[in-house]
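B., you asked whether I could sanity-check this one before it goes into the benchmark set. Here's the sequence:
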Amino acid sequence: MRKLTWISTALCLALAFSACHDEKKAKNFNQKTTLDDNGVKFVMDAHEAGLTEINAGNLAEKNSKNPRVIGLAKMMVADHTAAGAELDTIAKNNLVTVADTLTGMHKQMLNDLSKKAGADFDKAYMQMMVDDHGKVIDLFHHAQENTNAALKNYSLKISPKLQVHLDSAKAILSSLK
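And here's what the prediction gave me:
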């Protein structure tokens, strides 16, 4: 009987020890983001800008008949989808929650755009791309000063693509007038 008690005790201690040294860690819901306020604002603003470009690009693919406009729209959707996935990873790694919905201003822009057709649509879409990319490029330049390395590197990586988008949009817009 004494032998059975020692074996039972040893087994209980072994199980308790293994449970305490489990490699899986519980989530700490009290953790805070590792980004400063500017970093969080950048993630939120860049995420929404990307969603807007994707939605506008999808709209242009459906509504435009101009091959140059459609080509740019496809590039916008592809590039902003890839950039958005990368930004979502940075957000997740830094405990920032982003919404997959647009704010009133961006919703209204897309709503106004969806009411246009033909050449009016093409001009409005291209003007939207020029205006939005000018603002987004400024946003990304400010993010390059952020102390978070992942955010800074992301901004440095994506900025040249945004400049290509802006230059392409300007060229197409000038050809439409």
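One thing to flag: Helices lie at 2-20, 37-63, 67-93, 104-114, 118-143, 149-176. Otherwise nothing jumped out at me.
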